[in-house]
Design brief:
Four copies of one chain form a homotetramer. Chain A is of the alpha+beta class and 270 residues long. Chain A has a domain of 177 residues: Urate Oxidase (Roll). Helix content of chain A is 23%, strand content 39%. In chain A, strands 1, 2, 3, 4, 5, 6, 7, 8 and 9 form a nine-stranded antiparallel sheet that branches. In chain A, helix 1 runs antiparallel to helix 2. Chains in contact: A-B, A-C, A-D, B-C, B-D, C-D. Strand 1 of chain A pairs antiparallel with strand 9 of chain B.
């Protein structure tokens, strides 16, 4: 047992409370469950974690090593449903009133080429985060879906061809923590992809490439169109309590990017 | 003159307004003025710009090329005092109600070694951003100040030595746009450095290195101490209307980082 | 079956052969074996892969989708001993004379705190790469080991204290492909850490922090010292045929870094 | 004057010489001349510098602060023709036999839209590096040119449309140091762009976008085509002594990238 003096436990006299203190950029192996359609699916991921609590003005510091202990003692496999207990544990170990955590990791799903039906894994960047304070518990899930967008203006004003490019649709949902999370990763991704000119695929044979090329030409979309289409599918979605959608196009005619974003809450029915 | 049809100008029927649409990661050369103590000082910088406006539900898209025109037509040298007119221009060209912009760039100041007095340039990462909407104009200035922090716990519990590391103090101030900005870069940086264990320097001779080593050992600081010290100097600072301070330590005993942050507004006098 | 014309298979008349053509930044889940001391150990990792072959001047292009097929058909778990067959497969599918591949991923090992004996996972960035050409097969393994370095000059010239910081030791070994690889990850990491002022640990209680602080103060090392110590342990190491060592210090007294590197082959005995 | 003991100047007994020791990631403001067509053109840039020398086995360390002094004492404006004297200075101050340096910075050139003739600055990432050792002086210049590439296969196999994307052509030339450098930046960039499906532009009005869209559709290029076209223009270029060309396509149908590279020396005439 440590008998060395606990400097962090001393009193502080500056009368300044701290909103967030903790550790960030912690690399940690996790087994994730509860985000795919198949409820039994788990995946070993490599996460980057940020953890923090608040600190009252009277105390000099938090105990950084206990933050790591909270990480090590998390239930595994870890599902979004476990975040509240991890936050509770963080708060208790640090004698805090608020706690926040976020995990970012790549998660692989198998994608099937549209014509040849070749299957290959595709990585999706996921963010899973939560906060706990006296007003309650909040949980957020973020997914980056890479897509193809083809410019409607370029198509319409040109005799042939149309510029197109890789784009990224970032969808961040705040879930209703009082209910089980029923919006699975596949559902978010399929919705995002259906709003772009075409999905991307890890493997495409020539028949697939032909399909994707014409699919995109048949579905031109500005960043404005994509963000609106995504939101059109979320604005009556009562399984989430808020959403934030950002579409970024890595323009193939410019060195800079174009983007559009909408932050809102689902409409209440009438 | 373009007689090609204006697709972006068409009507949209999805009844979804867009919060932000624009361009990001635009690289642009700027001449910056008005941020140093010397009001006549200017510096050629290489900025990364993000610009956006809102879009009413009735319109299909914005005119991306006009965003670049707003950038090209900015007054040069550009000072923070010019941001409101740039935002006004953005809003007008796109017929929008809101506009936002941010510039990030490195700005060099000469730093003098503490004993040898050798001078050399040090880069500071600066963020300059603003927004304009029907509620008014807001302006923000952010500075990243790299410093040295030495761990008070490590010092106290060890017979000799103490772990120390590079850290970053990010100070973001919202200025009171109704008054001239009088908080200069040097003042923010000096305040930040005085809150750490020691400043960093671009060039140090042996006599300087001795000075910095002992200065840091004499001034141990946790991330919690640094963020509180910075805020102690800001909480009665009525030249700003809000502040956000984040301290990150690139811990020399761990592969992960420690951080602490406080977001607040200056206290009103009584 | 594809009956669409094979454009890549056409002839090219520019008489210019291509050294490397392929795919890069491919994200792929792998199960890795054969790099830990325990020969039965495997780990699910998330790799970034680069693959290429050469292309004779007569052919217009390679078949990019077959590169992905080579990845998908790799033996799993994948050990360094399998790289030659993967390279052989790449070369055959593309009718090439040379093939190169590299995988980069984080691999977790459990680290035990020096006094409290608390265990926690630590990520190590690993590079595994190989090439195959008419002169033969080559295989390389790279490990980034984060460490603490304490400056000997700062210690000696100061009355107390010494600046120290996080550093990175990158060791890249070319293995002798004709023999089984017997240099395990733990051996490389332990050697690297023994050459620095102190290892880093994912979790440290106060008793550990005291230990690490004094260990570093007792073992001051310049980047020059660290790179020499690492090479002193490799220069008679006949299990590798070449080594490249680069040490980078994220200086805690400067905003820039210091580095030292040595590239050499083990000395032949006499 | 420093009378503190010079630890770095002590003797080392490990009998291990060091290939490179120095500083890296040094941020420094420079005025660059001598790379544009107009010989009088200069530009203030923000460079990242890496500097190193070799170290004989007998000496414990180099003098890091003298590396910064070499940077501070460089001639300004700095042209590629000055690199040899900077390297000479580095070598002398450290009593070394070899010296290396590299600068990376963004450099702006004005680009004119093809139809509307609107002008705007475009950033090009430049690398300028050199080495000096007993065998002589070498100088390298690298330019990243962002372009548009349109896939020939996608165009040919589809009834309409063709996938296209942003790509990057990196050209690295080793100049003949015995002659004045006459290959200007504009010449390298124009050559690179002529080898792609279309250049990129910072500002495009609708008439320009129509032009660029059709230009790209009329000039489909694989990465293999682009790298060959670039090399076709370099292989008889006797103003350089070696070249390295790498083309990367940020594929709009995949989340991964495609690349092709050629490293060679110009052919000797007959």
């Amino acid at each position: 047992m440590d008998r060395i003096e606990d400097i962090q436990g001393r009193k502080d006299h500056r009368q300044i409370a701290i909103n967030r203190v903790g550790i960030c950029d912690v690399q940690i192996p996790l087994t994730i469950s509860g985000i795919e359609k198949d409820p039994a699916a788990t995946q070993a991921v490599h996460a980057k974690a940020d953890l923090s609590v608040d600190l009252v003005s009277e105390n000099k510091g938090i105990h950084m090593s206990r933050m790591i202990e909270s990480l090590l003692d998390m239930p595994q496999p870890l599902s979004p449903a476990h975040l509240s207990e991890v936050l509770e544990d963080l708060r208790e170990r640090q004698d805090a009133t608020r706690a926040e955590l976020s995990f970012h990791f790549d998660y692989f799903l198998t994608r099937i080429a549209p014509v040849s039906k070749r299957a290959a894994p595709q990585a999706y960047r996921i963010g899973l985060s939560g906060s706990l304070d006296p007003e309650g518990f909040r949980i957020f899930q973020q997914v980056d879906v890479l897509v193809k967008t083809l410019c409607p203006c370029s198509k319409e004003i040109s005799d042939y061809g149309a510029h197109n490019q890789r784009g990224c649709i970032r969808i961040r949902l705040e879930h209703d923590h009082s209910k089980p999370i029923t919006i699975c990763l596949e559902e978010i991704i399929e919705h995002a992809e259906s709003c772009a000119s075409s999905p991307l695929f890890p493997i495409l044979k020539r028949s697939d490439e032909r399909h994707v090329t014409m699919l995109a030409y048949d579905n031109p979309r500005f960043v404005e169109d994509v963000v609106r289409e995504v939101v059109a599918g979320l604005k009556n979605e009562h399984r989430c309590v808020a959403y934030d959608v950002r579409v970024t196009n890595f323009e193939s005619i410019h060195a800079h990017n174009a983007f559009a974003s909408i932050t809102d809450t689902p409409e209440t029915g009438a």
